[in-house]
Amino acid sequence: MTDSPSFAFAARGSASDIEQGLAFQPKFDADGLIAAIVTDAGTGQVLMFAWMNAEALRLSLSTGIAHFWSRSRGRLWQKGEESGNTLAIREARVDCDQDAIWLRVEVGGAGAACHTGARSCFYRTLELGPDGPALARADV
Amino acid sequence: MTDSPSFAFAARGSASDIEQGLAFQPKFDADGLIAAIVTDAGTGQVLMFAWMNAEALRLSLSTGIAHFWSRSRGRLWQKGEESGNTLAIREARVDCDQDAIWLRVEVGGAGAACHTGARSCFYRTLELGPDGPALARADV
Q1: Chain-chain contact of A128 with B62 (C-beta, under 8 angstroms)
Q2: Which residues of B touch A138 (CB under 8 A)?
Q3: pLDDT single digits (tens) A60-77
């Protein structure tokens, strides 16, 4: 485990500061988490959706390797720590109200961002069929 | 407001069903919401991140136009209902554990997915500078 970097995140400012300013004022939810969208820096495909707590966000920014908070396991988690499929961050962005992060990454190892072994977690399409919503396998 | 479609979503099955099956078994959180990532069907750029309740998801699937639940306003919301910047869904996907939706869309109207008038809500990059995290304007 990488030592925790020590910088803090700024408190939330006015709506104008948050939307138009250049100070990073992330909004963590009631559980201390912020949403993180991960896309492939090459193809643009959405690879996964996960959550970061402040520590995961600090480690992601300081190491350039994506870290998350696992809600199911209740612990900090470096993506790929076991599989080798680490996510090298090529660009990070934040949205207008600073409550979501977008990471453009290169996937290491076998190139599988999903724990199922798929390249992306979004390997099924969703459509409304005659019998209601239905999934189909998609290329990823 | 479109009349509410009447179909229901399936109950959650086994982990294997959820990950490998073709039955849609969405996981709504404690607030009854599921995360929705919206990307531009043409460019692949992430446009916005929002939440759907069951009703918003039903309407999105049945009309092909993205609907969300506004947590700040506490109401159902058709994106672009006032601005005209509606989101026509070209493809919907669901992730491995079926707790996030990915919509590939075409933006109508002026083409601005963000309420600030920007094409994407993610109009700022985030980097760790010498004084801590800092934002910079990005092309969107």
Answers
A1: yes
A2: 93
A3: 999 999 999 999 999 999
The band of B63, judged by pLDDT with boundaries at 50, 70 and 90, is very high
CATH 3.20.190.10 fits A15-137, yes or no: no
Identify whether the C-beta of residue B49 lies closer than 8 Å to the C-beta of residue A35.
yes
Encode pLDDT of B114-130 as tens digits. 999 999 999 999 999 99
Strand order in the sheet with A46-52: A46-52, A34-40, A100-107, A87-94, B124-129, B132-137
Cβ distance B125 to A93 less than 8 Å, yes or no, reads: yes
A28 touching chain B per CB within 8 A: no
- Facing A94 at nearest CB: one of B20, B62, B126: B126
Residue A119 reports pLDDT greater than 60: yes
Chain B residues lying within 8 Å of A56, measured CB to CB: none
Q: Are B85 and B110 in contact (CB under 8 A)?
A: yes
pLDDT in tens, B44-56: 999 999 999 999 9
- Tell me the two tokens of residue B29: 């959180």
Cβ contacts (< 8 Å) between B94 and chain A: which residues? 122, 124, 126, 135
Q: Residues near A22 by Cβ (< 8 Å), separated by ≥ 6?
A: B124, B134, B135, B136, B137
For residue B56, give both structure tokens.
């918003």
User: Model ipTM?
Assistant: 0.95
Residues 50-79, chain B: which have Cβ within 8 Å of A?
A: 61-62
In the numeric block, which tokens belong to residue B66?
């993205």
